[in-house]
Amino acid sequence: MREHTAQERWRAARWIQALLPATLLACGIAAADANRYAQLRAAMLDAIRADYQDTALYIDKEHADPRVLAAMGRVPRHEFVAENLQARAYENRPLPIGHGQTISQPYIVAVMTDLLGVDADDRVLEVGTGSGYQAAVLAELVAQVYSLEIIEPLATRAEERLSRLGYANVTIRHGDGYYGWEQHAPFDAIVVTAAASHVPPPLIAQLKPGGRMVIPVGTRFLVQELLMVVKDAEGKVSTRQLLPVRFVPLTGGH
């Protein structure tokens, strides 16, 4: 192995000196972005807390579960929207994700997650993957998330995004969520992120005794009702209306 000449060593040093400012600049920009997004997430959580106070009569809760807020404080919501919308990702409002679909308002994500009452070892079914944001929040809280998306390009992008972000406990499938995912049933909890005209019987069948389902129910062009469906230990099902909401419709062959 030959020795490098003094001229070669000088050229290498000059190359490193030229590269260093660009590297430091990139690191500085990344750090500034991370700090900015952290501040925006904190503001988003404050908005969610305020909405809990405003809707306490509907949901019988004045305060969000701290575990849910902590999970939403960890998930980088800006990664789940288009680049031109990333500056608005932490606004407490829904945003478009293409194909006529939206990423839900953060407050609604918090409420639906909170009402499921999940534990760390639970298995949860999500109907309507969308961008994958709700699945990511759930993945911070439970052992396994199974998510169904009827729009194939959304399913593909969500799977790639969640994999890139390290959410190894989320499994996504392109399919009609009305029929659930019998292969992995029963589920400790089910969340439906699109409005159905009624509670799908296959989802009730796939809910474990003692489990909960949160689902918007109503007609396509009117305000819907967010329902909580509870199956008790004996398998008896009860429902409760919680909150007026507006979701995109649950589509499929049903």
Structure description:
The chain is an alpha/beta fold. It has a single domain (42-245), classed as Rossmann fold, CATH 3.40.50. The protein is built from seven helices and nine strands; from the N terminus they run H-H-H-E-E-H-E-H-E-H-E-E-H-E-E-E. Strands 5-4-3-6-7-8-9 form a seven-stranded mixed sheet. A two-stranded antiparallel ribbon has the order 1-2. The protein is globular, with a radius of gyration of 22 Å. 37% of the residues are buried. Mean pLDDT is 90; it is low at 22-27.
CATH superfamily: Vaccinia Virus protein VP39
- CATH architectural name: 3-Layer(aba) Sandwich
| Number of helical regions | 7
Low-confidence stretches: 22-27
| Number of spatially distinct domains | 1
| Distance N to C terminus | 71 Å
Largest sheet: 7 strands, mixed
Percentage beta strand: 15-25%
Helix fraction, binned, reads: 25-40%
